[in-house]
Amino acid sequence: MNDDHDAVGAMRFIFEAGVLKRAARTGWWFAGIKDPESIADHSFRTALIGMMLAAIKGADPARVSMLCVLHDTQETRITDIPHIAKSYLTAAPNTTVTADQVAACPPAVADLVNAAVAEYEGGETPEAIVARDADKLECLVQAVEYRHQGIDNVQRWIDSSRAALKTASAHRLADAALTGQPLAWLTPPPPPA
């Protein structure tokens, strides 16, 4: 950072991204979830899933994690538009929103963020494919968790998320999520024989 102006511009984006900690993933309201996860909650686990999928698939885990962290940052400005609403609304492309969000950032930051969002939206690189799978897989995992909490109206999220997966690794993780127990990690595995 060259001067205070760069710091102020970067901090504007940091403060804006903080809104994602308070903004709900609105599609879950249709399933009857009164207090759904935040967009930041979703992005955090998406980045974790993306890192794992990248390691399994041979993609760059750091790059995938970055794509996952940034994939929904535009929702500070356009909100989390539920799937059903998208057929009635036209939102600006995520790349346009991102460019506006980082316009005051130092050029190196703006270039990095804009390139990452463009890569994710393009969906063609191995890292973008894995990151997009991580996004869908996280939604599936969240639906499984809600189902285990007694919300029985989440099958459409499971089905649509699973249908969108592209990699074999993501399909294997989806199978494990669907047959697993969200709290199984609380019981330690038996010691090796």
Notes on the structure:
The chain is globular. With 193 residues, the protein is mostly helical. 61% of the residues lie in helices and 0% in strands. It has helices at 4-18, 39-57, 61-70, 75-78, 94-101, 107-122, 126-148, 155-164, 168-179. The protein contains nine helices and no strands.
Order of helices and strands: HHHHHHHHH
**Secondary structure tally, helices:** 9
Largest sheet: none
What is the alpha-carbon Rg in Å? 18 Å
Q: Termini, distance in Å?
A: 56 Å
Secondary structure layout:
Blueprint: H1 4-18, H2 39-57, H3 61-70, H4 75-78, H5 94-101, H6 107-122, H7 126-148, H8 155-164, H9 168-179
Helix pairs in contact: 2-3, 2-7, 3-6, 3-7, 5-6, 6-7, 7-8, 7-9
Features:
single chain; 193 residues; mainly alpha; 9 helices; globular
Brief synopsis:
Helix content is 61%, strand content 0%.
